[in-house]
Amino acid sequence: MGDPQLQIGMKFRDFDQFKAAVRNYGIKNRYVMNFRPNDSTRCKAICTRGCPFYLWASLMTRGVSTVQIKSGHLKHECAKEHKNRHVNAMWIARKYMEQLRADPSWKLSGIMQAVKLNQNVEISRLTAYRAKSIALREIDGDEATQMASLYDYRLELLKTHPGSTVKFRCDDGIFEAMYVCLAPLRAGFLSGCRRVICVDGCFLKGVYGGQLLSAVGVDANNCSYPMAWAVVNKENKYNWSWFLQLLGEDLNIENSHGWAFVSDRQKV
């Protein structure tokens, strides 16, 4: 599909695969293709420059989705294109998905240069931005979809880490906070870490925002040891009290004797 060699008699799974192959052929050879007519039983690919090139494809038999190229003229008599509308944001995102997965900070100028060198097509900065956004959304996941799967996430954590504490707090069905303390981390802290707990919070960037509250210990090698964290709607006394109360129940802290808490405090 990266460099299809189209021939009369070729078969495709369906019309979508046929049109994808024609688009890839156009991108590879720097031609822009149109599909007319284009319906559920037939599809004709033609060159936008009006040259004799065409491919006529239709269903092999009625009731079967397999598509075959029945006839065509496979030679172009027009000049090649330097701008190709088939090289859109969705196509670029799929083409360079793995590069963006390896380097999410890939600059827009780098994407534009890669498309120009590899495809001989110039794209705008806006197209590169949209392609990167689509790819990162596919890699990281959509935030709305992830928020809708929080209860499934809780069940999966309890299944894979028995004895863990995963709690939600809602107000009239609206999500407000989530607390997580995994059983292996809790057991490791109680059995081999010093009785020192560092607490802090930071902003969360994204559609929903909020704050991330965390509690981190110190192990025998003076390294950070995460214990528990919570996602809350905002940083205030009520949310900190809720977080520390659950942390105290998990660590069996009945009084402050023998424990040290460290916080940056700042202005509050």
Automatic annotation (TrEMBL):
Annotated ranges, domain Transposase MuDR plant: 5-58
User: Could you tell me which residue ranges the MULE transposase domain spans?
Assistant: 196-265
| The protein's name in its UniProt record | Uncharacterized protein LOC120267169
Starting at the broadest rank, the lineage of the source organism is: Eukaryota, Viridiplantae, Streptophyta, Embryophyta, Tracheophyta
